[in-house]
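User: Hello! I'm new to structural biology and keep hearing that structure can be predicted from sequence alone. Could you demonstrate with Small ribosomal subunit protein uS9? Please show me the input and the output so I can see what each looks like.

Assistant: Of course. The first part below is the input, the amino acid sequence of Small ribosomal subunit protein uS9. The second part is the output, the predicted structure written as tokens.
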Amino acid sequence: MEVVNAIGRRKAAVARVYVSEGTGKITINNRDLANYFPSSILQFVVKQPLAKLNVAEQYDIKINLVGGGFKGQSEAARLGIARALVKINPEDKAALRAEGFITRDPRSVERKKPGRPKARKRFQFSKR
């Protein structure tokens, strides 16, 4: 099996994911998963697609992450891994879609509008 690549995005984070056959090692920006994401919750989020399909020990995964914060990066990595697994085995798509791992979350920060302090907040109004 050659290297399969996919891209996952979430908010401002972009994850380029490269999946190859291996022993289950996940490397993010040349660092170990536990080193890059010390929080066990974020590690769990990244591993969710692999756990759902019971293929955690079959593939080595290299991820290049840029932009965003910890939460956005972990969810971008999850989407990228799910897309790569679908490229490897298209029959897994239904199982991953049922869990919501294939859907790109479109929510992002709303832009600030002119004449307002924030996107929706208005300056204080005084009648008199």
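User: So the tokens describe the shape?

Assistant: Right, they're a compact way of writing down the 3D structure. Reading them back into a model, for example: The first strand starts at residue 4 and ends at 10.
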